[in-house]
Amino acid sequence: MCAPLNASFALEMLNSVPSLSTRARCLCRNPTDAQDLVQETLIRALTHAEQFEPGTNLRAWLHQILFHSFVSRRRRATRERAGLLRFAVEFGNHTVEQSDVSTRISPKLESALEALPPKISEVIRKVDIEEQSYREVAEQMSIPIGTVMSRLFRGRRRLAEVIADDMQPAQAA
Questions:
Q1: Same-domain check for residues 106 and 154
Q2: If we measure between CA atoms, which residue out of 111, 136, 115 comes closest to residue 126?
Q3: pTM reported for the whole predicted model
């Protein structure tokens, strides 16, 4: 049951780095955070190498570690953000709002969000900007999670269309 840290284990781990990096970039949507996540994954894998069962799929094991690390980071960030907001309110800084520096958006995106139907815009704001979970949004809005996902899909698609239209060069007359 104990996997010795041998050359084949290390080589297979190194061969998994490109796929780990790709998945991390998809999850994080930020190259720097993705690199940090892959590095954290490899450190955890090396630290807990004795838990790997020889003969099983090392790549799958690494991807599982990566995903669990990602989820842990997101939960930690959410708790920290909520804690900072509570701290600010408790000590009299009532000007702190949910739209702090980390959640400010560009004026173009703001106007594109305002152009969406209110129910769709609200879901996008809660999930993508305030980083709430689908379940939290569903409970707050008293709708099924599937409806949250559907509104999110339609809203993101419309926003992508608006952004693509804005990036089109102006046609000469």
A1: yes
A2: 136
A3: 0.50
163 with 136: CB under 8 angstroms?
no
Domain count for the chain, please give it.
2
- Do 108 and 145 have their domain in common? yes
Of 85-99, 106-120, 121-135, the poorest mean pLDDT is in: 85-99
Q: Which range marks the domain in which residue 155 is found?
A: 101-167
Identify the pLDDT of residue 152.
87
Task: Provide mean pLDDT across the span 107-133.
Answer: 85
pLDDT tens per residue across span 27-55: 988 888 899 999 999 999 999 999 999 88
CATH number of the domain that 128 lies in? Answer: 1.10.10.10
CA angle 138, 73, 76 (to 5 degrees): 70
Residue with tokens 């089109």: 168
Residue 36 lies in a domain: yes
The full 3-state SS of 10-73, as one line of letters, equals HHHHHHCHHHHHHHHHHHHCCHHHHHHHHHHHHHHHHHCHHHCCCCCCHHHHHHHHHHHHHHHH
Q: What is the CA radius of gyration of the chain?
A: 21
